[in-house]
Amino acid sequence: MNSNITLDATDLALLDLLQTDASLSNLALAEAVHVSPPTCLRRVKRLTEAGLIERQVAVLNADRLGQLLGHGLTAIVEVSLDRQSAEALDAFEARAVADGGVQQCHRVSPGPDFCLVVTVADMPAYHALAQRLFTADASVRNVKAFFSVKRAKFETKWPLPLDGN
Fold this sequence. Notes:
Elements: H1 9-20, H2 26-33, H3 37-49, H4 62-69, E1 73-81, H5 86-98, E2 102-107, E3 114-120, H6 123-135, E4 140-147
Antiparallel strand pairs: 1-3, 1-4, 2-3
Helix pairs in contact: 2-3
């Protein structure tokens, strides 16, 4: 990864467009940012190689998918450990990020040590996750779960300093 990259207005516009719709063709991207298609392709490749574009994914519509599969259960979970040593924090973090039910894992301060966003099929699946991550780990001191009753906003976009914004 290139950490010595500088971003200009065209790079920021490309990043903004791609995080809105990564399926845009190179031609459409080039037209939108007013550069030639080869220039656009080189810039996107450079942004990817610099690690600014981590991956391209499809964002699923949770409400539509929920109608087909059952709505599932989302929880925001605060986790406090007995010890805040680097080893204890790293060990819990490694277990949390490896678990498929954990969508996000944040080390936070002050307050709890971690804040997790967890999505599972139902309450029995949450209970199984809680057993794996919280009960089986003797270093977990406190767990406080908040269960989502409605997702009012979900966004993956980073606010970028675009001209006029």
